[in-house]
Amino acid sequence: MTSQIRVDSIVPTTGVPTGGGGGIVQVISVTKTDAESLTSTSTETLIPGMEATITPKSLNNKILVMVTLNASVGDQYAGHYAVLKRGSTNIAIGDAAGNRNRVSISLQAPCFYDENSSALYGPGQASIQFLDSPTTTSATTYGLYHADPESTNALYINRSRGDTDDDAYNRIASSITLMEVSG
User: Fold this and answer.
1) What is the pLDDT of residues 27-70, one digit of tens each?
2) Would you tell me how many other CB atoms lie within 10 Å of the CB of residue 62?
3) Which of the four, 29, 51, 72, 112, has the lowest number of CB atoms within 10 Å?
4) 33 φ/ψ sector (left φ>0, alpha ψ -120 to 50, else beta)
5) Cα–Cα distance, 119 to 92 (Å, whole number)
6) Cα first-last separation, the chain
7) Contacts for 182 with CB less than 8 Å, ≥ 6 apart
8) What does the DSSP assignment read for 50-71?
9) What's the CA gap between 82 and 22, in Å, rounded?
10) pTM of the predicted model, to two decimals?
11) Which residues contact 170 (CB under 8 A, 6 or more apart)?
C-alpha cells in the first residue's frame, strides 16, 4: 500500500520570510508548439494556445506568471505589441504617457523584424515574469493578446517570416506557466 500526504502549502520550521511566504503551492503550464500566421488589428486578440487557468488556494497567495513568446512580424514599421491579461484586465504593462500604447511586449524591429536576415530565418524571443496578486480563490485565466493599432500586418508565432522548407529556417515553441506562491 502506498501512502500519500496532501497539503495546500508547506511552511519551513523557521517560519516564512518577512513580508511573505515563497513556497510553491501549484504549477500550471501550457506549451504552444504549433506555428501559425495571425493578422493583427487594433483589437487586442488572444494568441491561440497562449492562455492558462489556475485556481488559487488562498486569497493571500500570489501568482508568478512566466511567458515566453517566439514570434516575427510582417512589417518593420508596424506597431505590433502583446499584452498580458488576467481575465480582461491588462497586467505587466508600462506607465501611461500621452498616446503611447501600454504594453507587456513590443513586437517591433529589430528583434522581431530584420530586413537583412535574422527574423527571416528564425523568430525573435521575448519573455515576461510578473508576480500578480489576484486576491481570489476562483479560477483565474491569464492570456497573452496581440494587436497592431497601425495596420493589419501579419504576426507569425513560433516561426520566421520566411518559413521556407529548408534547414536554415527554424520552428520553436512558446509557453505560459503559472506558479502559485504562498503568501
Assistant:
1) 999 999 999 999 988 899 999 999 999 999 999 999 999 999 99
2) 22
3) 29
4) alpha
5) 25
6) 34
7) 9, 11, 16, 20, 21, 22, 23, 24, 25, 58, 60, 61
8) EEEEE--S-TT-EEEEEEEEEE
9) 28
10) 0.85
11) 121, 122, 123, 159, 160
Residue 99 DSSP code: T
In this prediction, residues 107-129 reach a mean pLDDT of 73
**What is the set of domains in the chain, with CATH numbers?**
24-181 (2.60.120.1340)
Q: How far apart (Å, rounded) are the C-alpha atoms in residues 50 and 26?
A: 19
pLDDT tier at 107 (50, 70, 90 boundaries)?
confident
What DSSP character marks residue 138? Answer: S
Q: What band does 14 get if pLDDT is binned at 50, 70 and 90? A: low
Lowest mean pLDDT among 17-21, 76-80, 178-182: 17-21
Question: Are residues 58 and 182 in contact, defined by beta-carbon separation less than 8 angstroms?
Answer: yes
CA–CA dist 126, 22 (Å, integer): 25
